[in-house]
Each structure stands twice: as C-alpha cells, then as structure tokens.
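Researcher: Please predict.
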Amino acid sequence: MLASLSLLLLLSSHSPSVVGGATPLRPLTACAAAPRADVEEALGHALTNGKEQKTENGSICQYDGNGGQVTILLQHATDKLDIPAEIRNLRATFPDATMREAPGLGKRAVFLDMPDIGTQLHVIRGDYDYVMVSVLGFGDASQVAPAAEKIARHILIR
C-alpha cells in the first residue's frame, strides 16, 4: 500500500519542463544531496541505502525503513517555474491533502500534509530548481514535518 501510494505521489508530482540552456549551479544527485546519514538523523529511524533513479531533468532517491519511505526528488528546469501553476497543480492532484506554507525555504515552499500518512515538502529554489522531500509511513504529518524540513534545509545548502 505505502509503495503504491509513494509511486502515485511521485508520478503525479508536477515535473517542470526542460527545454535546454540553463544549468543548475551545483549539479547533485538526490542521494548525494540527501545522504542516508543525514536523513536517518533527521528522521530518527534506520533506513536502507538509497535507491537512486535519474530522470530527464534530475534524480530521485528513495530510502526505506520501519514500514515507511523517504523520497527525495531534485529537478532543474530551464524554463522559469510558474509558482502559482505549481501550487494549483498540487491542489488539484491532492484535493484531500492540507496545504500549508513553509516559510524561510527557497523562493516558495509548501507542505502537503496527508492525515495518518505523512507529508511532502515542495520547495522552489530560485526560478529553476525544485526539491520535494516526501516522508510517508513514519507517522502523521505533524510528527514527520520537522524531519522533512530539516532534510530540505540540508539539501538547499549543498
């Protein structure tokens, strides 16, 4: 159930378009940006080694442990991200989730809280970089949101 939910969340997350031209300041893979030790420390749970997958415009890293899953998604678009459109897409894709602002992270950041499942933290850094930290199966959103934020902050300083 959790694996299929994570896959659904990941597949339904908006992917910024890549057209060519701009490059990220520091190209890192998702697992390099969020090493297992950092994720374990933030979450307080032991996890498996990250399984990384490259995407057309970034990468995904997934850690599993104790029946839960942490997924890190990094994307770099060459077209400037349309923040209002990104927010509308998240609301439409997850109508039952609660969206709340996460001030102080990137240009705009929002939590997408899913009762009894966990949370996703969506961060737009600058005009082109998108980071998602999904923490599912380790507790309610209120329990895991601090870990998601800590992981995102580590990613943003790398």
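Model: Confidence is low (pLDDT under 50) at residues 1-25.
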